[in-house]
């Protein structure tokens, strides 16, 4: 259970970082991080672990990353990376 929690947290951090770099506005990024953080905390603190939830989250992660990869706005990505550092 602990190992699964660590794995979920790692995936969450990676996804949030990837999404933050590709997001256009700070407000959207903050909303996304808050929603994602709450979801992950709920999953980690639950007594019983449901594999289906993790499966759906993994699919959502892949969809989000694919959508963001198709964004062609390079200038906003550079700005977002500078804001992160």
How would you describe the overall organization of this protein?
With 85 residues, this protein is an all-alpha fold. The protein has one domain. It is 84% helix and 0% strand. It has four helices and no strands. It has helices at 2-22, 26-45, 51-69, 74-84. α1 runs parallel beside α3. The longest helix is centred in the N-terminal third of the chain and has 21 residues, at 2-22. The chain is globular. The N and C termini lie far apart (33 Å). The mean pLDDT is 62.
Q: What is the SS-derived class?
A: mainly alpha
What does the average pLDDT come to?
Answer: 62
Q: How far do the termini sit from each other?
A: 33 Å
Our estimate of the beta-strand percent is: under 5%
Q: Helical residue percent? A: over 70%
Give the overall form.
globular
Count up the domains: 1
Low-confidence stretches: none
Q: Radius of gyration, Cα only, in angstroms? A: 14 Å
- Write down the oligomeric state: single chain
Number of helices: 4
Please describe the biggest sheet, giving its number of strands, its sense, and whether it closes into a barrel: none
Number of strands: 0
Q: What is the ordering of alpha helices and beta strands?
A: HHHH
SSE layout:
Layout lengths: L1 H21 L3 H20 L5 H19 L4 H11 L1
Provide tags for this entry.
transmembrane; membrane; 0% strand; transmembrane helix; mainly alpha; 85 residues; single chain; globular; 4 helices
In short:
With 85 residues, the protein is mainly alpha-helical. Helices cover 84% and strands 0% of the residues. Helix 1 packs antiparallel against helix 2 (26-45) and helix 1 (2-22) runs parallel beside helix 3 (51-69).
């Amino acid at each position: 259970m602990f190992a699964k929690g660590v794995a979920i947290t790692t995936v969450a951090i990676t996804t949030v970082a990837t999404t933050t770099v590709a997001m256009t506005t700070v407000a959207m990024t903050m909303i996304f991080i808050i929603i994602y953080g709450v979801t992950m905390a709920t999953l980690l603190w639950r007594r019983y672990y449901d594999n289906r939830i993790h499966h759906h989250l993994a699919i959502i992660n892949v969809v989000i990353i694919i959508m963001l990869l198709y964004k062609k706005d390079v200038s906003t990505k550079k700005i977002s990376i500078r804001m992160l550092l």
